Amino acid sequence: MNSPLESAVLFHLGPIPITQAVVTTWAIMVVLVLAAFLLTRRLDLRPSRRQAALELVVATLDTQIVATSEADPAPYRGFIGTLFLYTLVANWSSLLPGIDPPTAQLETDAALAALVFLSVIWFGVRSGGVGGYLRSFAAPNPVMIPLNMLESVTRVFSMFVRLFGNVMSGVFVIGIVASLAGLLVPIPLMALDLLTGLVQAYIFAVLAMVFITATVEDGKARTADADPTNLSEQKDI
Amino acid sequence: MTINWWTLGLQAVNVLILVWLLSRVFWRPVAEAIARRQDVVQTMLNDAKTAHDSAAAALAEVGTTRAGMAAEREALLSEATRKAEAAAKAALADASRQAKTLLKAAQTTAARETDAARAKAAAASAALAVDIARKLLGRLETAEVQAAFLHLLVTAIDQMPPKDRAALLKAETRVDLLSAVDLDAAAKAKVANAVGKALGGAPELNFVTDPDLIAGFELRTPHFVLRNSWQADLAAIQKDLKNAI
């Protein structure tokens, strides 16, 4: 069994080493895109069971986004939903024999965390402008600027470490147990790994939404504070 | 532990591509399908609300119209009642007036008929009385009665104007002397003597028997009648009774 801390390079594309995690991710991408394309070919006003299930997924995701951000879910739906789906499928790919989940590799989780970090900046700037995003670091007061800047990195780092630790440990434990106790004993652990993968995907997506919302809300609040025309409205509130 | 930065970058790009692809083929189409259905449902709800509002407005209009009809009906009923009461009052007054007129006419007619009946009854009574008297007096044709009537005749002649007495004595004048019964020669002579004496001459008397006289003597010429009989008396009495009624 290879160390989960090392990436197994399958081949090179020029100078670029292609690891198993990358190939597995490509496979997951193909499966997800093909499945989405096939499932969404005929969407009608009178939904079939298939369409109703798809709409249930989207509606549930929108509900979660609205519950977290109290905003229109449309701008965040694609990123947060894809983040959740990819993480979930990647976590559950460990159930296939001979497949190591991409999320059990440092690079994949780091890439996801980096995307969350960048998405926070992107949505923060898009909502309140560059000034609004930068002012969000001064919430609740300028004294917190160093801590907020440090937090913006550490919280993403904690996400990355949490996801990596949970998935990698599950794979590692199952591998050890399977090497020691044969075929049937790991089954309960694999079932637990399913639950862990679902929970970690959910936590990762929800935390990403929380971070984005916090930045957007802080940027909006600071922008509103700086706008004297909003004083009367704030008094009313 | 080492991090393969190529792999990190590739995975980040992979996830970004997946985000873009799934947004295009999954999240957006499904969300648009939901939004489209929501729009359709909202449109249906709006249409239903519009229809409901229209129905409510129509119902309110019907209610207003019904209230107007009820008010108009009440007004028409009031007007009809007023006219009916006026017509009934006028008809009652007219009927009362006609009844009074009829009653008055009936009273007049009844009074007239009563008077006529009374007059008729009185006339009948008078006629009956005269008839009774005639029958009774008819039994009194005696010499004393003749003598009394002869005396009355002489008295009447005496009370005549001399010109009339002279006219009765003219030779060309035929004087009928009517009696109720046939007179014998002595009686005729007595009567002729008394009449001639009263007239102051000797008239040519033509003795005629007329039982209708009942009793008495009368003188008649073509131009003169001297009545002196029960018949004349009864006729006078009957006339007086008739006039008295």
Gist?
With 237 residues, chain A is mainly α.
Please, could you describe this protein's structure?
The complex is a heterodimer of chains A (237) and B (245). With 237 residues, chain A is mostly helical. Chain A has one domain. Chain A contains 7 helices and 2 strands. In chain A, helix 2 (49-69) crosses helix 3. The longest helix of chain A is centred in the C-terminal third of the chain and has 41 residues, at 186-226. The termini of chain A are far apart. Chain B has 245 residues and is an alpha+beta fold. Chain B has 2 domains: 36-139; 141-244, hypothetical protein PF0899 fold, CATH 3.30.2320. Helix content of chain B is 77%, strand content 7%. Chain B has helices at 5-138, 143-158, 162-169, 185-199, 230-244; strands at 175-179, 205-209, 217-221, 224-226. Chain B has a 4-stranded mixed β-sheet, with helices on one face. In chain B, strand 1, helix 4 (185-199) and strand 2 (205-209) form a beta-alpha-beta unit. The longest helix of chain B is centred in the first third of the chain and has 134 residues, at 5-138. The model of chain B has no long low-confidence stretch (mean pLDDT 88). At the A-B interface, strand 2, helix 1, helix 2, helix 3 and helix 4 of A face helix 1 of B.
